[in-house]
Specification:
The protein is α+β, with helices and mostly antiparallel strands. It has a single domain, classed as Ribosomal Protein L22, Chain A, CATH 3.90.470. It has a 3-stranded antiparallel β-sheet. The longest helix has 19 residues. 21% of the residues are buried.
Length: 135
């Protein structure tokens, strides 16, 4: 398990105060896409969550560079292989309502994981298979 993780290049964002549903809209957009194209998509997206995912993707690229010193990003064909959003804690708040009642408000948060890898035959099949499973 530990050796397997050394060959993966990923970044995680924990307890992000955005709804998981809103974050999934952004991460599904970049899943299986080449890294430079994904950065462009995130940069020009109007969603607030795209700023956080863009920063996370840059962190994953920096992790790749740390493990592959001397290699160039342009020549390595990096692709976003995993972009998943998991539910985190939910803060429960109370909002006053008419006639002395109270309504509960759920402030949701999430965990985001992004993994990148160079595009070779094995990774390409994996990405295509994952996209077919989602459809």
């Amino acid at each position: 398990m530990k050796e397997e993780r050394q060959n993966q290049y990923y970044a995680m964002l924990r307890n992000c105060p955005t709804s998981p549903r809103k974050m999934r809209l952004v991460t599904d957009m970049i899943k299986g896409v080449e890294v430079n194209k994904a950065l462009d998509m995130l940069k020009f997206s109007s969603k607030e969550a795209s700023r956080k995912v863009e920063k996370l993707l840059l962190s994953a690229i920096a992790n790749w560079q740390a493990k592959n010193e001397g290699a160039r990003i342009e020549e390595s064909n990096l692709v976003v292989t995993i972009a998943k959003v998991d539910v985190s804690r939910t803060l429960k708040r109370i909002q006053p309502a008419p006639q002395g009642r109270a309504h509960r408000i759920k402030k949701r948060s999430n965990h985001v994981t992004i993994a990148i890898d160079s595009m070779d035959a094995g990774v390409q099949e994996e990405v295509l298979q994952e996209q077919e499973n989602q459809a």
